[in-house]
Amino acid sequence: MGNRKLTLEGQIQQMKSQNIGFSIVNEAEAIEYLSNHTYYFRLKFYAENYEKTKLPGVGTRYLDLEFAYLKELSLMDLYYRRVMFNIVQDIEHYAKIRLIKSVTKNKKEDGYNIVSEYLTRYRWFDKELSRHQSKYAKGLIDKYKGNFGVWNIIEIQTFSQFIDLYELYFKKYKQQHMPPEYLDVVKVLRNSIAHNNCLMFNLHKGKMTKDVEAAVAIAEELGFDEQEARELMLVSFLRDLTITLYVFYNIVSSKEERIEQMGILNRLVNERYNNHIDYFSNNSVIMPVIKYMQKLVGIFNDKVQIKNIG
Asked: How many CB atoms lie under 10 A from the CB of residue 154?
């Protein structure tokens, strides 16, 4: 149909021409859903997880794909983003707590010296402050600019800027800390969720990246088979989840918060995701991802029940 705008009815016809079925959700229900709950381009994203053929004169034809499958996968993704947002926010919050706690106990650091070193190393930060227009941060900037301590500069930093300060401090004093590259993974996930990006639209295995080994090591530590972990960690979505839950478990110092957030995630993945899991039983891309998620989240949910930080 080229690049022209499609009506809702036209969108349905285009999907039908691509062998997307309407035997579970009928066409009228699909039109209502596309009209009031999502939009065609976004929902169609999830078709990337399905096999397709492309023949001259025929065009794209999906194999074993129903509108209901796309709808369910988009809802799974939506609920996942909502739950994971609290988890990544917790990680940022408790990473700051860990930094402040260390600085407070460190007799060699007054909380201002490390900020001075940070501002010397990252000279662009001062220019960033001058462009900071947030009404919620402006008062802090005006009050403390030129005399920042760790405890107030972290209130106006982006997560990326905070990670730089976090790394600078813990490396300087050679103290045990969460690897900054793990926090970078959390940061990317956090930003994607904040921008409401689709996360489960492409669950295919990708290329080897620097964080694959870290994710494999975590999975092995949790009891996953090494070969299975190496295969699954080629899926970017699963790498991010594995590393993020590892960071959450190890950096959040509130037992109650760990239990609460992991309980919510566990109910989503191991209960809600089962509602229509039969939709994906024949999909060799989606099903292994769901099964790994369920096992991984279940393991961490069990671990938070027994971990007790003094």
From this structure: 19
What's the confidence (pLDDT) of residue 133?
60
CB 105 within 8 A of CB 143: no
**The tokens of 237 are what?**
């979505």
Instruction: Classify residue 243 by its DSSP letter.
Output: H
> pTM of the full predicted structure?
0.93
Measured CA to CA, the distance from residue 237 to residue 276 in angstroms comes to 21
At CB < 8 A and 24+ separation, what contacts does 4-8 make? 6/40, 8/34, 8/35
Distance CA 71, CA 10 (A): 18
- Read off the tokens for 37: 């709950």
Residue 121 CA to residue 238 CA, distance in Å, equals: 34
Supply 196's token pair.
Answer: 């409401």
- Separation CA 90–CA 40 (nearest Å): 33
Looking at residue 310, its pLDDT comes to 44
Helix, strand counts (H, E) of the chain: 15, 4
How many C-beta atoms surround the C-beta of residue 108 within 10 A?
7
CA atoms within a 13 Å half-sphere pointing along the CA-CB vector of 126: 12
pLDDT along the chain (310 residues), means of 10: 83 97 98 97 96 86 97 98 98 98 97 96 84 74 88 94 97 95 97 97 91 96 95 97 98 96 98 98 97 98 76
